[in-house]
Amino acid sequence: MGIKRKKSESEAMEDYDDDVVVDRKEKKKMKKMEKEKEKEKEKEKKKEILPSMIKNKEKRSAVHAKLKQQKKVEKRKKLKARDAEEKRALELGEEPPPRKIPRTIENTREFDETVCKPDDELFAGNDADEFSSVLKRDRIPKILITTSRFNSTRGPAFISELLEVIPNAHYYKRGTYDLKKIVEYAKKQDFTSLIVVHTNRREPDGLLIIGLPDGPTAHFKLSRLVLRKDIKSHGNPTSHEPELVLTNFTTCLGHRIGRLIQSLFPQEPNFRGRRVVTFHNQRDYIFFRHHRYIFETKESKQSDSKGKNRKDGKGEKNTQQKVIARLQECGPRFTLKLRSLQHETFDTKGGEYEWVHKPEMDTSRRRFFL
């Protein structure tokens, strides 16, 4: 019987090094195999016939529908897998995996130095701007609304609904008066703002908002106007003072426009009326909506993990009460796009402009000014 000789330390180290080299080679082979598989998949994708390559209309539509259905099925599988992972993590008492944030034009916007921060000096200067007297409640907002010289049939209907939206607003016929004379008259009558509705081809297409007595003057393009009568299952507004919601006015210019809009409304809303007026800025388009809301309690049946309804000891079904909010649109509905912002009151010849929109400024879809 021969005695087995124990391996020396140097031999053991050599064996270990050989194993490491083998592992590295295997990993390299695996990586190569994965790369080859990816290349094959890419080739298969390229070989796939796209609907745009098919000339026959019926076959093209059939292939398109099939691809759409496949994408839907894949999306559902991913959602189910994600929900299962979250449920498993909650059962084990662990943190669920973080959800991916989708890339949008808003969250990939170009860097802008004028975006306001909470500790910005701009907020300190709010006490001395043109809107401070109204926003500090030293003056009650009083709005004069008029039209352009050539009015249309749809313009008065829009103005009548604006009068219901903005409290303490008064309509005066334009006639043949010059706009500068109207501004002087509004100053004498202690109006805080002047709104001019411009019409073109029997359709309102512009809004001019002038802060009184010292400006500024903002010119907006008005589009996608829908009056109350054209809104399905609309509601009628009450005379209560509305709540005002302003969203996404983040830059210095947007902050200034937001304060101009804010100065049109009283600063003490009546919450019993449950009225909300919203100015939502998205990609420099300001969407206007007018709603009434109500809170309701809704009973929902509790179910276990298997989807069966739970029952207590007496055999009665357990119910859980949820508070839900219901909205009813009152109208009108329209979209604003800022064209220019001018210092002081309206003056086309000698006025100084803070900001003017030009076509050369639209260099990128991810560049916003408000």
Describe the SSE topology:
Elements: H1 9-47, H2 57-91, H3 121-124, H4 132-135, E1 143-147, H5 154-165, E2 169-171, H6 179-188, E3 193-200, E4 203-211, E5 217-226, E6 243-247, H7 252-262, E7 275-282, E8 285-301, E9 319-329, E10 333-342, E11 353-356
Parallel strand pairs: 1-2, 1-3, 6-7
Antiparallel strand pairs: 3-4, 4-5, 5-10, 7-8, 8-9, 8-10, 10-11
Overview of the molecule:
The protein is α+β, with helices and mostly antiparallel strands. Among the domains are: 63-94; 121-298 and 322-361, Brix domain (Rossmann fold), CATH 3.40.50. Helix content is 31%, strand content 24%. The chain is built from seven helices and eleven strands. Strands 1, 2, 3, 4, 5, 6, 7, 8, 9, 10 and 11 form an eleven-stranded mixed β-sheet that branches. The longest helix is centred in the first third of the chain and has 39 residues, at 9-47. The N and C termini lie far apart (92 Å). The model is unreliable at 1-7 (pLDDT under 50).
Task: Note the main attributes of this structure.
370 residues, Rossmann fold, eleven-stranded mixed beta sheet, disordered N terminus
Radius of gyration over all CA atoms, rounded = 32 Å
Q: Which sheet architecture does the biggest sheet show?
A: 11 strands, mixed
What CATH architecture of the domain at 121-298 and 322-361 would you give?
Answer: 3-Layer(aba) Sandwich
The average pLDDT score comes to 84
Oligomer: single chain
Query: CATH fold name of the domain at 121-298 and 322-361, please?
Result: Rossmann fold
- The low-confidence runs, each spanning 5 or more residues with pLDDT under 50, are 1-7
Structural class: alpha+beta
The CATH homologous superfamily of the domain at 121-298 and 322-361 corresponds to Brix domain
Helix content: 25-40%
Order of helical and strand elements: HHHHEHEHEEEEHEEEEE
**SS element count, helices:** 7
DSSP E strands, number: 11
Q: β content, as a range? A: 15-25%
